[in-house]
Amino acid sequence: VQLQAYGGGLVQAGDSLRLSCAASGDASGDTFSRYIMAWFRQAPGKEREFVAAITWSGGSLYYADSVKGRFTISRDDAKNTVYLLMNSLKPEDTAVYYCAARSTIGSLVAIKEYAYWGQGTLVTVSS
Hints:
With 127 residues, the protein is mainly beta.
């Protein structure tokens, strides 16, 4: 499974940005809908942290407390793509954002349980 994240950039506090993550390989076609998809982020000097996750066919959504109410995760299984819409961005949202995929159940926030990772896209929020 290959994941390609894109859509990052430099924005000002309060702006919005939408990240996309396209899947290919084994996650393409009908199998994509069977993957749990998630976004993580890693700020400079900090550990990677969970941001949001969406289960099979968008049945359930999960968010970190720090982004709840501002970020929205969604997926388009016909396009093998997962999105992260980020509103009301804050300087503390500055990080490299990674998309990840898994086909197993378990803790959605556990980095080690995600088998597939994209390369990351940088989001910089200026104050």
